[in-house]
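can u pls check wat happens w/ zinc ion
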Amino acid sequence: MDRNWRSKTGIEPKDIAARLKALYSSNRGSGTKPPKGNQPPRHRLLTIEAQEEDENNNSTIVPCICDRASKVYECGICHQYFRGRLTEKCVKHPFEVYLMDFRECPYCQASIVAIKESDLTWEQIRKIEDATLPGGNDDL
Ligand SMILES: [Zn+2]
Ligand SMILES: [Zn+2]
């Protein structure tokens, strides 16, 4: 069918299409679709790239806390000191679970909300506790 039509008219269908397109776009150009406002594809690509860059930068802004150091804590309820890490959700690995991390006070099971980071170092606390605990386990 195409071939018949082409041979009759002697015009390539492509040409017609191109002409129609030209006509169409020149008619419509200033009308419904202003070409200026119609540039989302490129813009989108750019924003995606920017986001990816941001994500890379985030590695410095939002660090992985999985390897954070142990700290000294004081329970606000029973005032016991202990060393370790309070359980905390790593932003980068929200599903990692560290069984050694404290979810509560190891002495009175108070919620970690009641537990505060201590200003004292563990050495200071050991000294205090060694001093307050009479005798006991000197051999250790
Ligand atoms: Zn992590
Ligand atoms: Zn406690």
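The helical segments are 2-9, 13-28, 40-61, 122-132.
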